[in-house]
Amino acid sequence: MTTDHRHIGRPVPPRHHDRLVRGHGRFAADLRADGMLYAALVRSPLPHAEVTGFDATAARRDPRCALVLGPGELAARTAPIPTVWRLPGQPEDAVPVAVRTARYAGQPLGIVVADTPTAAADLAETVRLDLRPLPPVPTLADALAEGARPVVPGTGDNTAGRIRFGSPPEEVAAALSRAAVVVERAFTLPRLHHTPLETRGVLAAHDPGTGLLTVHASSQAPHAMRQDLCAVLGLRADRVRVVSSDVGGSFGSKVLLYPDEAMVCAAAVALGSAVRWTESRAENFTAAYQGRGQQATARLAVGADGRFLAFDADILADLGAYATQAGSGPAQVTGLTLQGPYRADAAAATVTGVHTTRVPTGAFRGYGMQEAAFLRERLVDETARELGLPATELRLRNLLRPDELPYTTHTGLTYDSGDYGAALRRAAALADRPRPPDAPWVRRGTAVVTAVEITAFAPTALLEAYGIAWSGWEGVRLRINHDGTVTVYAGVIAVGQGIETTLAQIAAEGLGIPLDWVRVELGDTDTAPHSDLSAQASRALTLAGGALVTAARRLADRMRQLAAAFLDTAPEKVRTRIAATAAPSSPDAVFHTPDGARIAWREVAHRGYRGWGRARPTDPIRLEESVDFDPPQLTFAHGAHAAEVAVDLGTGRTTVTGYWAVHDSGVLVNPLIAHGQIAGGIAQGLGQALTEEATVDADGLPTTRSLREYTLPASPDIPEDLVIEHTSTPSTVIPGGFKGLGEGGTILPPAAVACAVAAAVPEIAHTLTSLPLTPPRIRAALRAAGLTAEGDIR
Amino acid sequence: MTAVAFAHTAPDTLDAALRALAAPGRTATPLAGGQSLVPLLTSRQVRPDVVVDLTGVPGLTGITVGPDRVRIGAMTTLRTLERHPELAAALPVLGRAAAAVAHPHIRRRATLGGSLCHAAPAAELPAVAVALGAEVVLRSLRGTRSVPADRFATGAHTTVRAPDEMATEIVFPRTTGLTHTFHELCTRGATGYPVAGVCLGLRTDGGRVRAARVVVTGCGDVPLRLPGTEARLTGRPVAGPHPGLLAALVAEAAAHGGPEDGGYRAEVAGVLLLRALADRGEGAAR
């Protein structure tokens, strides 16, 4: 009996769930080391202030204190963190660890290390800061006001560089002049907190004997962290090892080395010992980088026939106090992806970075594409209303058809494959249902929106072209061990998304073996192939998986050749017979010939390690294949989302009553994991549509400091009618045909919900350009439109 | 973060608990269900020298339904209020308001006395206590006193309770002649924090309001009783129409100096009130 070891496409339960549910997870706060000490940060209480004094005398005298590093000591021990993706004209190219001027409330100024976490926190409080307050610059309007104080000293204003993408201005102007209708709106996309379940955390251990610094961190990108640590601490690459332990959610907030994490590592080196820091929830709300934070004026020009002539946007990105390593990246992607899945005569965007005295912004799931989708889909929606056309009809007229692909946008992105219209029509059909009768004060509406998604963010040439000083390729090392078991090492890491399961599926299918023979080892810079971007940008499965397809094919061929040598036959005559439940050590898991000769899989592996059976003495011995995969271009996933909402005219509360998503991520390795990723992304996107906003007060101090002020969606807020379907257009550029889906679910919900609210209450449609759509905001718009709160109550 | 180091004492008699609260020279905080206090401790917003854990003190839990009043021990959990058949028959609004608090895990620990003493401006049970005319019994080594609920909270998270006092019992009269309901809007679905709410007490006759009690949450530092709104309702048909009632409620609440939200919470309270009236008008008509 032969068993077909097909694993790709099977809804295998994610492997890590069992371990985590049983409490065997190892998150940063679970880790221990001999003689471990604990760190607490001294942070600026003010958003903008000169630090004229840092007096830690009391702390240093305390017997519980191991070390205090203030701005002076940190300046001697650290170099700034280099940036990798800059805007033309950006005034700074590094993020300092040691500072004499605080530029945001919560900025780390120093670190205290003590023998217990409580002692560290107690002693950090005793540090006397002398701060000379400087005027805060909390908003984009403040930053760009005439005479605003520059956040970066010595610069003339608060702009942090500018870039233009897409059609030349004269082409945009020409398209605008041909237009029958130009719809222009001003948009505000607020800053968001990532609020991962697990806050940040670091255990840094320095061995003074070997000089080795071992850092366990809740990080999405351990190699990038190592690279930055080497630069900051002046250490050789082979003296720093970074290990990503279990990561309890990240969403883009754990892709960079932060100054406070660098301080913990500097303290470990200074002490020659192990130091652990666990970020508190309050710190996560003030000191962890935030996402989004854009204002834009965007316009869509259409012809009388409803044909899109031009998309155009001026985007202001609130970078905060510093342009971080990737700084303006998300806003640049907003500009790059504004055109979306539509055909247009012209498309362009100008992106301007702006400094404020707020915590820096950076990557957030959807990376600029959620912002672009919101601008674009709201503009299309408003345009349809202006033209008196059904919005779905207007979209279908302008969506790129499969026969137009590959298609290169005006901003230079080449879409490889997809059927955008099919997804939109399907989502519209799913959402088309009778609406239940409602109270007189409730209005319902439905809308369908669509987007393409950059996935497999990689081609190294593309990164080079954009001036991004990271590599984009991904590597895997696939090993068959001497006992026949199989280990995958990859540079991408697990952040809860299930990558250790999907990579195992790809390896097992490629080798033709049971799934449980394969283990996947990730996250340790000592053993994992180099990876700068690792688990971000919807790239892990596509790129590591693409590499693994090739590695598995090569290793399967080598095993077959070794077996053929033993069986004294030609490799193409060798077959395998491995039962679905066989163990790798099983004598029944065999290579065999048609005439009955056989050798066990494990025996082939074992002989392989002895070096026996090679065709030529120069053939490789170790049963390992290392493959680096640098795809020729991006691959684009796409999807359409439909939302049905009920708007309470009295309270302004919007409830999502139904949600339908149709995604195309090419070949799905694991539909169960795909469903979880998309459902989670939708839930996160619904929070961003309706409740989430990181705010500051008039003095520039953060006002969302806990989950009390920052409202995340909970399970009852996610509609029971949440339907996710897939179409499948294989990628033409990734082996295996995979496309990414880590971010797709998050990209469309704000646009879908806002357009559905517009459909429910067209009287306020034109105002729905700012997120989140909180009840007070909707209520104010209703009031302005003359819809009184008591109107429908009799 | 971790709390500032504190002593923990778990007395097993009321007298020992009162002595712990009264210990001179150190600040003591009573710990009931801990659903508000523990986060305040770990975020270092509260830094007592000693935490007096009341969970082992006998005689502080239980619901006694009498002919004229209902006495509820301060350490009775919200989950108990929610699921108590006799209480549901005597004062159904208490259980329903309790059920509106957070989610079951929290209600299993949170207590009635804790909720009143924490005195969050938008909290459900302090408003219901005001609407029902409850009295909070405070004990200390100095003696016992009883404070009407509408004079118990003095501001956001502040009450008349002296540091050496603890709430032992809340007494609800059954003789108001009003029937109460509670309605609220939360920051999200059913599990969020309350934004605003209203406890409405009505005595009706022939579909008309004979007496009304209106207490709103979230519109000021403490639950606000709105006598002006009550007076406007009196004599009106329950089912309405109630022209001008919403605006009047917003104005009356604003006179107490509400939150800086452009009157949004008061408007929500008013909307909830109008809907409650429509509901009850319909019920009365059936």
UniProtKB/TrEMBL annotation, chain A:
Domain Aldehyde oxidase/xanthine dehydrogenase a/b hammerhead: 22-135
Keywords: Molybdenum, Oxidoreductase
Keyword Oxidoreductase: yes
Protein species of origin: Streptomyces catenulae
Protein name: Xanthine dehydrogenase family protein molybdopterin-binding subunit
Domain of life: Bacteria
From TrEMBL, chain B:
Organism, as annotated: Streptomyces catenulae
Keyword Transmembrane helix applies: no
Keywords: FAD, Flavoprotein, Oxidoreductase
Name of the protein this chain belongs to: FAD binding domain-containing protein
Alphabetized PANTHER family for the sequence: XANTHINE DEHYDROGENASE SUBUNIT C-RELATED
All copies of domain FAD-binding PCMH-type, residue ranges: 1-177
Any Pfam family matching the protein: FAD_binding_5
SMART domains according to UniProt: CO_deh_flav_C
InterPro entries reported in the protein's UniProt record: CO_DH_flav_C, CO_DH_flav_C_dom_sf, Diverse_Substr_Oxidored, FAD-bd_PCMH, FAD-bd_PCMH-like_sf, FAD-bd_PCMH_sub1, FAD-bd_PCMH_sub2, Mopterin_DH_FAD-bd
Classification via Gene3D superfamilies: 3.30.465.10, CO dehydrogenase flavoprotein, C-terminal domain, Uridine Diphospho-n-acetylenolpyruvylglucosamine Reductase, domain 2
Lineage: superkingdom: Bacteria
